[in-house]
Every structure is written in C-alpha cells, then in structure tokens.
Write a structure and sequence with these properties.
Layout lengths: L5 H11 L7 H9 L9 E3 L6 H14 L5 E3 L7 H13 L5 E3 L10 H10 L5 E3 L6 E2 L3 H5 L11 H11 L5 E3 L4 E2 L1 H11 L9 E3 L7 H10 L7 E3 L7 H19 L3 H5 L11 E3 H10 L9 H9 L6 E3 H4 L3
Parallel strand pairs: 1-2, 2-3, 3-4, 4-6, 5-7, 6-8, 8-9
Antiparallel strand pairs: 10-11
Helix pairs in contact: 2-3, 3-4, 4-5, 5-7, 8-9, 10-13
Length: about 325
C-alpha cells in the first residue's frame, strides 16, 4: 500500500531513507517507484547497506533519471562492481548537480571511469569522494621520475584531478582522507598548478596527513589561480585562519624592517604617519610593496573579514594590529 501511494512515498523518504539498514533489495523496490517522480529533487540514502548490488541498482536508475538534483549515498558500503557502475553513471546522467559518494569503498579501479565521466558530465557542481579507498604510495622511483605520477602508468589519480579541475560545471571537488602519500600529492598538485584552464573553485583535500613544511608548500602552489581555493590539513580551515596567517606575515615584515603598520600601508617619505583606517586598495598595495604573498583565491574573503563593521571599502587598523 505504501509503495502505491506517491504522497506517502515522499513522506516516508524523509523519515526512513537515512541510516535504517536498507539493503540492495529494499533500494531496488524503492527506486522502481520513484522513476522520474516529479517531487523528488533531493534524495538522501546515506548510512545504509547498499553494498555492491545496491550500487548497481542506483547506477541504472540514475542513467534514466532526469529529475533528481542532489543525491547523498555516503556511508553505504558501495564497492566493486557497484562502485564501477556509479563511476560510469556520473557521465551518463546530466541532471545531478550534487553527488556525495564519500566514505564508501571506491578504489583505483574506478579512477579511469570517473575521469571519463567527468569529461562528459556538464551539470555536476559538487562531487564528494572523501574517505574512500583510493591509494597512491610513494616510491623512490618518483623522486627520480616524478612525471610517472602525472603522465606515466601511475597517473590515474592525477588525470582524475585534472578532469575535475577543468570540468566547466564542477565547482567543488572533495578528495580528502584517502590513502594518498603527501609526497605524491605535492608532485601532482605542482603539475596541476601549471594548468591554465582550471575552472574548479574548491579543491578539498582535508584529512590527509602532512607536516608544516608540506602544508606551506601546497599553500603556495595556487597563488596564481585567483578563483581556486585548496583546502588542506586535518580540517577545512576558515577565512579566519587565512586572515590570521596573513596578519602574522604582516607583523613579521614590520618587525624585521622596523616600520609601523601605518607606514606600511600609508607611506609618506620622511614622515611617520598614524592612521585609523586603510582602504582596500591601500591594504593590497602595502602587501605588494612588502612582497608578502597574496593568497588571491581567498583575498576577497579576507578583506571582507578584516573590514568587519568598518565603513564600506575600508579596514580598521585595529583589525590589522594583533599586538
């Protein structure tokens, strides 16, 4: 009776689709009643037991579905042929805008299919592959021939990252907490940063283990890509983190060169000045004169954060002075 009533289906979806141990057979029955259902734009089936067969059923359904916009099937134990089928379905479906496949068992066997799908898909904006089973171990041969990771037989992960970074519709790609050696990641990101046709806006690599030197290295790679934000470290950093990092560089410059903040942002030769605010242009000019690297992907958010309640177009010196 439930499955014959569209209204009840929609109501119950909101009640039992998440974390209720639905198996592959349950999903098959459910999906058969939702084919192009006009009310289903968002579907959350996370934290269920779809496994291999459930993944295959979902993939078949997605290929023919022209209504669904957002699908979350994270934490569903999707693996093997189910993962491969979904990897291919990404390219066959051109309606989804958000797909969460995190915390499943997608492996390197699906990389080529995902890469091919991203070259075909023209609607997906957000793809989450965080916390799967993708692996890239560091080998001494990569030290001698780093191009093996970008053009050789070990380049599958890099090619997928390129496909994600240059897909014209994808804006957010989450790939953190996989089994990627940071030394391998840096080699791949160095190559990725050389591309001139990157359209991706957010590359989330949080959850990968790295030391301070490696973090600093990655932070510097995408300074010339104004729109792309690359998130690294144990968690996704906020604008406050980036603003504090920049403020520390500013104060380090002032101490090393024995200049005041006012002189840095409003220099008048031979005269020591005291100002209460700086314009956005003065702030940027001061950074350039001091040769402080400007994180272009974050600078608009940083300026807005520092500006706070100041007059439009200005930043209070109190926001910059952290002494």
């Amino acid at each position: 009776v439930i499955l014959n009533c569209s209204f009840v289906i929609l109501t119950l979806l909101l009640l039992f689709d998440v974390g209720n141990s639905l198996n592959a057979n349950d999903i098959k029955i459910l999906l058969s009643k939702l084919v192009d259902h006009p009310n289903i734009k968002n579907l959350n089936l996370s934290h269920n037991q779809l496994d291999e067969e459930g993944g295959k059923y979902l993939a078949e359904w997605l290929v023919d579905n022209h209504v669904l916009l957002n699908l979350d099937i994270s934490w569903c134990s999707i693996r093997l042929l189910g993962a491969k089928a979904l990897a291919k379905a990404i390219g066959d479906n051109n309606k989804l805008v958000s797909l969460n496949l995190s915390s499943n068992s997608f492996t390197n066997d699906t990389l080529e299919l995902i890469t091919q799908s991203l070259s075909r898909n023209m609607t997906l904006c957000d793809l989450n592959l965080h916390g799967n089973q993708f692996i890239c171990r560091y080998d001494m041969k990569f030290k001698e021939n780093p191009s093996d990771l970008t053009t050789g037989k070990e380049s599958q992960i890099y090619k997928m990252m390129v496909a994600a970074a240059t897909n014209q519709s994808l804006t957010t790609f989450q790939f953190g907490q996989n089994h990627i050696d940071t030394r391998c990641l840096i080699i791949m990101l160095e190559a990725l940063a050389q591309l001139t046709n990157i359209s991706l806006e957010e590359l989330d690599l949080t959850g990968l283990s790295m030391n301070a030197k490696q973090t600093s290295k990655i932070d510097s790679l995408f300074l010339n890509h104004q729109k792309l934000k690359c998130y690294i470290g144990p968690v996704r950093y906020t604008t406050e983190h980036f603003a504090n990092y920049l403020l520390n560089l500013i104060h380090m410059h002032c101490e090393q060169n024995s200049v005041t903040l006012s002189d840095m942002f409003n220099p008048i030769e031979g005269i020591r000045t005291t100002i209460s605010t700086v314009t956005h242009e003065q702030f940027l000019d001061g950074l350039r004169r001091a040769r402080i690297p400007i994180p272009m992907a974050y600078i608009d958010d940083i300026i807005k954060y520092l500006g706070g309640d100041s007059e439009p177009g200005t930043i209070s010196m109190r926001s910059i002075d952290i002494t």
